[in-house]
Amino acid sequence: PMCIFSGIQPTGVPHIGNLLGALFNWVSIQNSLQASRASSSSTPPPELYFSIVGLHALTIPQNPATLAQERKDMLASLLAIGLDPEQSTIYHQDEVGEHAQLHWLLSCLVSMGRLRRMTTWKGKIATARGTATPVEPEQGGPTAGEADEGIADVDEEHRDLSLGLFSYPVLQAADILLYKATHVPIGQDQVQHLELARDIAATFNKRFPSSHTTPKSSKSRREPPFFPLPQPLITSTPKILSLRDPTAKMSKSAPDPASRILLTDDDTAIRAKVKRAVTDTERSISFDPEGRPGVSSLLSIIAALRSYQAQQTQSTLDPFAAASAGVTPKEVAQQLDSSGGGHALLKETVTSALIEVLGPIRERFQQLKEREAQSGYLEQVAALGREKASVRAKETLGEVKERMGLR
Ligand code: ATP
Ligand code: MG
C-alpha cells in the first residue's frame, strides 16, 4: 500500500519558499488522493503522514518559549493552507516516542563515516569553522564517494556541534521508516538524506530478514521486504530566492526579515517587501535564472502561485501530475514583457498574486489561533494526530525490536 510521509521543523512561520517548495505540494497530494479515493474503491487508500518535527529543531540551540510557540504556529499554518486532520495524519513527531526509539535502533546500523559525508553536516562544519565557503546543501550534494578533505580533525572541528545534529539524517530515516513510507515529498536539498534512509532500510531488510522466532519452513517462502525503499517525490518548483540577495535562497533563519514573505504577512508588509526586492537594471522582462536571478525568482513565484490557484479550482486525479497544472515562469515573462510594463508591472503582479493567495490563508491562520485560545482546538487536532500516528508507530517498532532480538 502507498504511504506518504513528510515533515517540517517548527523553526518559524513558513515563508513562501516553504509554501511553494514544499507545503502546497502536501496539500495537492492530499486533495488529489481524496479525488482518486472517491472515484475508485478497489485499492487500499493511501496513508498520509505530515509531521512537525520538533526533535529535529532541537539539533541546534532553541529558546524554549519560542519553540513552544512555533510548534503551535506550525500546526496552525498546516491547517490554514488546507491540510485536513481527517484525511491526513498531522502530528507532532516529539509526541510519538517511537521516533526516538527507532532512531536509536537504526543509529546502530549506520557508520560514522557514512554520516560524516552528508552534505548538510559538512555545510554546518564549514559554517562553524567560519573560513571555508559553506557547502550550500540546497545545491544538491556531492555523492558518497567524495573526498573528506579538511574534516579529519574531529575533536577540533566538531567541538560546538551536537551529537543530535550529526545524527539528524538518521532521525529523519526513523521518521520515514516508522510508517513504512513508500513516497517522500522533498526538495532537492533532501535527496541525499533520502538515499541514506533507503540504505538503512535495505541494510535492515538484509540483516533481519524475518523474525528469528519464525520456523525455518515458513521462512523459505518469499516475503516482501520489511521496509519498502522510500522513493522521493521531488517538488517541481525551483528554489525561491531571498528578496534582498538573489544569490541566496529564501530562508527562515536569514537575519533580514525583509528577505522573505511569511504566511502571516499582511498586505502592507507584502507590498513593502516586494517593492524592496532586488532585481536588476535591464528594462525588459525575461526568465533567465542564471543571468537574472532576482527577476527570475519573482517570475517563478508568480507562476507557482498561479498554478496553485489553478489547482484549487480543479483537482486532478493523478497526485504526481498535480504540480504540472498551470503556467510556467517563461510564459509569465512573455506575458509581462509583451505588455511592456517592465519591473514595475512585474512587482505589481507578484504583489497582487501574493495578496490573493496569502490573504485567505492568513485569515484562517488567525481564526485557528482564536479557536485555540477559546477552546484548545489545536490541542485537539494534535491529540487526534498523535493517536493516529501511534497506531502504526507502535506496530512497526514492535516488529523491529522483535527482529533485532529485543523480544
Ligand atoms: P532554515 O533557514 O531554518 O533552514 P528553511 O527556510 O530552509 O529554514 P526548512 O524547514 O529547512 O526551511 O525547509 C522546509 C521545506 O521547505 C523543505 O522541504 C525545503 O526544501 C523547502 N524550502 C526551504 N527554503 C526554500 C526555498 N527558498 N525555495 C523552495 N523551497 C524551500
Ligand atoms: Mg533549511
UniProtKB/TrEMBL annotation:
Coarse class of the protein's main subcellular location: mitochondrion
UniProt subcellular location: Mitochondrion
Any one Gene Ontology BP term: mitochondrial tryptophanyl-tRNA aminoacylation
Highest taxon listed in the record's lineage: Eukaryota
One of the Pfam families matching this protein, by short name: tRNA-synt_1b
EC number: 6.1.1.2
Database matches in PANTHER family: TRYPTOPHAN--TRNA LIGASE, MITOCHONDRIAL (PTHR43766)
Name of this chain's protein: tryptophan--tRNA ligase
Organism: Pseudomicrostroma glucosiphilum
